[in-house]
Design goal:
By secondary structure, this protein is of the alpha+beta class. It has five helices and six strands; from the N terminus they run αβαααβββββα. It has a six-stranded antiparallel barrel with strand order 1-2-3-6-5-4, surrounded by four helices. α3 runs antiparallel to α4. The longest helix is centred in the C-terminal third of the chain and has 29 residues. The N and C termini lie far apart (46 Å).
């Protein structure tokens, strides 16, 4: 089978990964973008200048590449693998500091969300009009990746439970390709972690 025969299936799987969703706790900040500032903000995000916040996600991307490299050398060169592991820990520490410096350490920043590479939902004390555009900052754990994106509110409805407030659903309208891949990997990792915990729980019960 030729390469062109595999491509549609690969693209289909890639699209499916974008729509995987998980419940998660993340650091979340957002602000409403006035309609007249949307294009300016979008242009700014499309041509970002290097900054400490984007560096935290760049570190997370490098960390993934380093894990692959470490696995390939740990049998043949254990000392090199050990050195890479130390670098990995240092990068984690730096990424954590950068994320806290840019997001803050307020515990109220930690929010329960439903997250995927294509969008997210979260609770809000105030109503946000459908169609509004938000500039969103996310901090992910355990990678300490900081991501900045634009999202459009596609639904804002009153919570159906006893809690006051609204559930806001957002579709991402701009995410850096590298950040989207980090989101995909984060979602897959959380899914695997959840399945692992479920299996361990069943084992304990048995």
């Amino acid at each position: 089978m030729g390469e062109s025969d595999d491509a549609p299936e690969h693209d289909h799987m890639s699209d499916r990964r974008k729509y995987f969703r998980i419940d998660d706790h993340v650091m979340l900040k957002y602000r409403l973008i006035p309609e007249e500032e949307v294009q300016v903000t979008l242009d700014r995000l499309r041509t970002p200048l290097p900054n400490a916040f984007s560096l935290s996600s760049d570190f997370a991307e490098l960390k993934q590449e380093m894990v692959i490299l470490k696995r390939s050398v740990e049998r043949t060169s254990p000392q090199v693998a050990q050195y890479l592991a130390l670098l990995d820990k240092k990068m984690d520490m730096i990424a954590k500091v950068l994320l806290i410096q840019n997001m803050g350490s307020d515990e109220h920043l930690w929010r329960k969300v439903n997250l995927g590479a294509g969008g997210m939902s979260f609770d809000s004390h105030v109503e946000i009009v459908e169609g509004a555009v938000l500039e969103i900052k996310l901090g992910l754990l355990p990678s300490h990746a900081g991501l900045r994106t634009l999202g459009k509110v596609i639904r804002c409805s009153k919570r159906e439970d006893q809690k006051a407030g609204y559930e806001v659903a957002v579709c991402f309208i701009h995410v850096r390709d590298s950040d989207r891949e980090l989101l995909v990997q984060h979602v897959l990792w959380r899914q695997a972690q959840s399945l692992r915990e479920q299996r361990e729980g069943k084992t304990v019960l048995n």
